[in-house]
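Re: weekly structure request thread

Next one in the queue (357 aa):
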Amino acid sequence: MKRFNNLFEQIIDYENLWNAYLNARRGKRLRGEVLEFSNNVEEHLIQIQNELIYKTYNVGRYREFYVYEPKKRLIMALPFRDRVVQWAIYQVIEPLLDKQFIKDSYACRKGMGTQKAADRLQYWMRKLERSHGKAYALKLDMSKYFYRIDHNVLLNILKRKIKDDDLLWLLEVIIRSEETKFGIPLGDHGFEEDRIEGMGMPIGNLTSQLFANLYLNEMDQYAKHELGLHHYIRYMDDIIILHPNKEELLEVLEEVDVFLKSELKLQLNNKTSIRPISCGVEFVGYRIWTTHRKLRKATVKKMKSRFKYLKRAFARGEVNADEVRPTVMSYLGFMKHANCYRLQQKTLKEFVLSRKS
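Done, posted below.
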């Protein structure tokens, strides 16, 4: 397997840092910390460059907050200068690592995404139904995936792919982030208590998306090359495996469970299931049948809640129409790929913005 070398020099190159700054500020140019950084951008970039060269760089303090849709999740946001560093890394290593991913991994990859993932799954469902009459879907659900990624396992995966010791030092600084614990216990525990050292990735980091994809690429390779699974598809930690034989899927589930526990230190939860595809398969926000697809109930609930919030925020003057429009267009685009014309028309009819007098 090819190992990549001489990447650190590309990362600390001033032009790469400048492009990282431009990417990091996109859509956030008027925020206070971005304006402050931009006022002395050359000085800040040279300081970052020197900290990386002399290995004095440390990750800044995370700002923590929660989102509650579709479930409670802890989001951790870095200071702007650290986001510049993350972009500088991402720009160099993402194209190299992406080439190692399987064709049917769809999350956080250029030219992929939810619609292509849904289309691919539905194509397979139709194909299996035509050839076998009946088929089953094994849906794998990881327990607290982002919060349970093992740092040692992840760093070993990176060491197998990257030969550059300077870059490995930087990645370890970001992954371990000694000032902050990211891991949480399995079960119904709060995020505030019992944080665990040595595991977890902060949701919200650019590198977290890439590393989380890379981590389960180990599972992808095992499924394809060891188990010989053809109808296997993944969107981040959402995995679907189709097969005409339910008993064979039960055997696959046992082997996958052992692999995840022993190699990746991950556990499946009780949402993992095997069901006939005739019941519909929940994937990437849709419930998919061979003949049609609809939005999942949880997706509709999240959309309505988000629109209600935006209407209230607009009425209070907290957001303007230009800030609301991308969210509305995103959901309309999502609905366009499902059989939900009435829901789409009802949503447009009810979503009326007005200011309080």
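The chain has a mean pLDDT of 86. The two ends are 65 Å apart (CA to CA).
Next request, please.
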